[in-house]
Amino acid sequence: MSRTIGFLILFAIVAGILVALHYYFWVRLVRDPQLTGLLRQLGTGLAVALPLLIVATIAAHRLWRPLGRVLAWPGFIWMGAMFILFILLLGIDVVRLVSMLGNRWLGTDDVFDGSRRVLTARLLAGAALAGVGGITAAAIRATQGSIAVKRIEIVLDRLPPSLDGKKIVQICDLHVGGLLGRGFIERVVRTINGLGADAVAVVGDVVDGTIEQLRPALASLATLRSRHGTFFVTGNHEYYSSSGARAWMDEFSRMGMRVLINERVAITEGEHAFDIAGVPDHGASRFLEDGPGEDVEAAMAGRDPSRAVVLLAHQPIAIHEAARLDVDLQLSGHTHGGQIWPWGALVRLQQPFIRGHHRVDNCQLYVSCGTGFWGPPMRLGAPAEITEIILRSGQKQT
Asked: Cα–Cα distance between 163 and 392 in angstroms, integer?
């Protein structure tokens, strides 16, 4: 019941924002250019219909998935295009403001006033629509086809020389259940199985739906191959599923994954080892029926301080606790690298880092841009990735 109430409140907020945005679009693209006749009717109709399309897509995705699948492509594409259009129009308005202030200060005519105002408004509206069309097409194209394998090397001071070169393949933010399904997962699994990993790390947000809906699409995850197995930690979207995160953890365990809940396991080669630890999503404590929340300290309890530890934590924000507890490396996702530029600037308000390799004190962090996408089938400036992480020893060979 609490999830339903929370969804309804969020739904109402989103609907209000959508109405305001589309009124802004109507003002800039219909009223200011003084469109008439059929063009005005079409523009006004779209300003009403498009926010309803997004609302219907979100509602149907949760409440009636057959309709949700029909609406998903147009609804989610417009969601992404809407954000791009807002940024373009906002940029134009900044230019308008600067022009107005500059011309007042200089005492010259402003191209946005007088007889030129309508012509200028029409030219700018046309430029904004052409820009959003081209950018949207490029962003959609970036999500099609194969996913790049991003290879990075990370030096761990406590990793023994005998374990130098150990390979962890990280995936996260697959978001199966929206526009991504069985074919996508099969491509990801084939790519990973060809990398010869020592371990596979699945760092949350695998699903957007129920177990019954998504079990066929996810089936090939059970065939992931690596020397020491596949390790999974929850992301926030596992908790949003009506199946519940606990049920999803059981499902991933059934597939052969080792689900890490504030715990740690040893990856042993001969006489030497390093640890892989994992914690639930940072927001898991809000869903007590699905188990404990994130507790990095519990995951580190009783560790051998001479041994390197790699922590799987969906949200980068766990890095502060990881650094305090002397974790060597944290692997995270969640941010999608911003997914559609410049959305990352807003993500940065909530997360300390949004992509790439970072260091906080003695702890290193790698934040993946994610393997799938959420919502719009679009990526702009944040390519999807399967991350091949090569661990290097910081100790000299003796």
From this structure: 8
